[in-house]
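User: Could you go from structure to sequence for me? I need the amino acid at each position, not a summary. Structure tokens:
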């Protein structure tokens, strides 16, 4: 038995600190581990050797700053994590290991709004198929990250807004998928997962405070403060789409008037172009036409960027992030949308906050949310899961 303050408990705590640092970063040199954990180089060296002998980490020779170094990552055999992303029109699943390597990934069209049962049926089938195709033992699955296009109520675990996914009323997504797969499932909204994905793999790497803005059928923001997703006590932090721009503007689905969403989301923007363009126009197509020089599409994209910039300015004044990452199809418009965002920020944000802010397109495109779902599991799983891997599992996977 470990006594608090004993050498055994201190050693255990140091093991967990090293595992946590490597787990979150994907790979680190031993020098980086020492800086991240505050442990001495000698202690890190001893712990890494112990973890390597136990099969928890892998060590390879590399270089850092022109000098020889040893890169440490979690063993590819230590376990796998699964990401599931429900968009309004798609389902995407990814399988990855604890060294931040994606082993398999697939997406398929799906009308998620129509039926939660069909959505979970398809997700269960796709997860099991990808795991089987990867040749991975099911008992290696540590957990599943699940993204849904709406806020999750922290207390109940259900969707916080039934107007966003009416077919999911009363559904607890985490419990539903966990019951089908027999492994822990961690759930969050798509904007938060997009922020996590870009933070770990994309345009947010290296920063501690950022906002990920996703514009699709709605508008949301994933907020990262001091390196952690900020959800708020009710789980609804980041609903930037419902900042009021014009109290006499269009009625929003939330019941208010003139929300940012009513000037930027696809459901409100696309009708502006219906009279001058062919039926079946999508936001992706609008961005493509705008890049090709279509004047109507260019004007719409610029206006959307200007309105998003007003919302971002409000975020700057309140939270002072160092970076804003624009995700979704709109990010493909590049400077056509980013320029107006920056212009609005310069106009409406406090000058000191605006000067410190960089506005970048997402690097991951439509994969941001599913990669964020993988990162969610890496965030939430306990380090003891790896250190105690010799203990028998209490529940078999995929029962």
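Assistant: Here is the amino acid at each position, in order:
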């Amino acid at each position: 038995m470990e006594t608090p303050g004993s050498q055994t408990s201190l050693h255990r705590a140091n093991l967990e600190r090293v595992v946590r640092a490597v787990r979150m970063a994907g790979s680190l040199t031993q020098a980086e581990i020492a800086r991240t954990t505050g442990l001495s180089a000698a202690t890190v060296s001893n712990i890494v050797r112990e973890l390597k002998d136990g099969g928890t980490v892998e060590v390879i020779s590399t270089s850092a700053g022109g000098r020889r170094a040893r890169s440490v990552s979690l063993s590819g055999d230590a376990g796998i994590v699964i990401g599931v992303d429900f968009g309004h029109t798609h389902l995407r699943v990814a399988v990855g290991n604890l060294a931040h390597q994606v082993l398999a990934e697939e997406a398929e069209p799906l009308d998620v709004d129509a039926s939660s049962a069909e959505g979970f049926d398809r997700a269960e089938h796709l997860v099991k198929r990808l795991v089987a195709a990867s040749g991975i033992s099911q008992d290696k699955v540590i957990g599943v990250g699940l993204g849904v296009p709406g806020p999750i109520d922290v207390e109940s675990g259900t969707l916080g807004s039934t107007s966003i996914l009416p077919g999911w009323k009363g559904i607890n997504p985490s419990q539903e998928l966990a019951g089908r797969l027999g492994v822990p499932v961690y759930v969050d909204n798509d904007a938060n997962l997009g922020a996590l994905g870009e933070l770990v793999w994309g345009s947010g790497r290296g920063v501690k405070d950022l906002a990920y803005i996703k514009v699709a059928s709605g508008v949301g923001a994933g907020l990262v403060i001091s390196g952690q997703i900020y959800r708020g006590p009710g789980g609804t932090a980041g609903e930037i789409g419902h900042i009021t721009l014009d109290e006499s503007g269009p009625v929003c689905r939330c019941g208010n008037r003139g929300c940012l969403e009513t000037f930027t989301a696809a459901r409100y923007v696309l009708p502006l172009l219906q009279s001058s363009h062919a039926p079946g126009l999508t936001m992706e197509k609008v961005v493509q036409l705008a890049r090709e020089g279509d004047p109507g599409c260019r004007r719409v994209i610029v206006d959307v960027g200007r309105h998003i910039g007003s919302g971002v300015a409000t975020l700057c004044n309140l939270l002072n992030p160092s970076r804003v990452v624009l995700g979704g199809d709109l990010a493909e418009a590049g400077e056509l949308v980013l320029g107006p965002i920056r212009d609005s920020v310069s106009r409406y944000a406090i000058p000191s906050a605006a000067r410190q802010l960089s506005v970048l397109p997402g690097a991951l495109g439509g994969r941001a949310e599913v990669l964020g779902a993988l990162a969610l599991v890496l965030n939430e799983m306990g380090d003891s899961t790896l250190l105690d891997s010799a203990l028998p599992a209490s529940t078999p996977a995929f029962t």
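One structural detail worth keeping in mind: The mean pLDDT is 88.
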